[in-house]
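Tutorial handout. Part one gives the primary structure; part two gives the three-dimensional structure as tokens.
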Amino acid sequence: MMTRFTNAQVILPDSIQRGSIEVREGRITRIARGGKTNGDAFDLRGGYLAPGFVDLHIHGALGRDTMEGTADAFRVITEFHLRGGTTSIALTTVTAAESEVLRVLEAAKPWHNRSLGGSRVIGVHVEGPFISKAKSGAQNPGEIRPPVASEWRKYLRYGSLIAEMTLAPEEPGALPLIAALRKNGSIVSGGHTNATEDQLQPALEAGLNHATHTFNCMSTAAKRGPYRVAGMLEFALAHKEISCELIADGVHVAPTLMKMLFNAKGRDGVCLITDAMAGAGLKPGTLFQAGSENSLAARVTEEAALTADGAALAGSTLTMVEAVRRSVQLGGASLVDAVRMATLNPARQLRRDGEFGSLERGKRADLVWFDREFRVRGVWLDGDVRFLV
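Part two.
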């Protein structure tokens, strides 16, 4: 069966063109110029048609959290984020007991590369527990521990289900873990780290290729005696091998810093993420648990999520379409580049850009239709409609 989407502003990897897309058996078969419609086509009424967004870092929504480790929680989370244009999602854990992390992995395993009705679960992002207590942020410092092989080998038994792991490269034992993750095909991300450049260089050589929520919970330039050395932030900005995550809500990272990141890394060096917590989709003032049962309580605000005492950020309440909008309107990115940072760049980090991440012939027909006000009007997964207004 063939489906044709027409009268669209088609967002391609390098341009936007007025035209149409044909889909057959879940794959894009043709992209054509021109805005004419006919009775057999799905008329997008001049709206934007983009690849489905790929979120590498997302914890929850609507009061539900990945750490619950249940199919019902995963369904609520992925259905909510699908309505924000996300078609591929990495469910993200927090620093917790080994048994809790394993429970999430076991629960996610049957849904790997499948949809429960919402976004496709492309894997699990294990954020912690192998991070720095000096940069714990909203993570539970009581569960932070060094990367011991007897523990991390249990996680890597899940193979490609481990889409990404956030770790502190300076921790003793981190280098063997980094090498093992790269061999596994996982994204190796420096985050919640207090590392300096002399600790980061061997990590880069071992396979470090990503930075978790850049600017947040990471070391920056510091003095060592009379000299100044780079931290994780400057190291990530300076090395093209490292792709930088960005929570593009304008709160976690101020607009000036967003512009700085885009200028430093270029359109190929940034991956937009939501880092959305269970508070996403809830009304301001609502309290929720930020992760596992032993994690900090948090509260939804108009802009993001804060710890209950208001002293620190506790993740965002973003959707991906909103991250794209704010990258354009606050960060000064072009729409083409903002979409690229939400689609093709994370797909490349996953080594799955031959499958999804851009509108090209032969790729999965994961599509998002949104209007000029960045309101999502429709989402298709493998050419099947999953959301339409």
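Part three, for discussion. Residues 71-82 form the longest helix (12 residues). DSSP finds ten helices and 24 strands in the chain.
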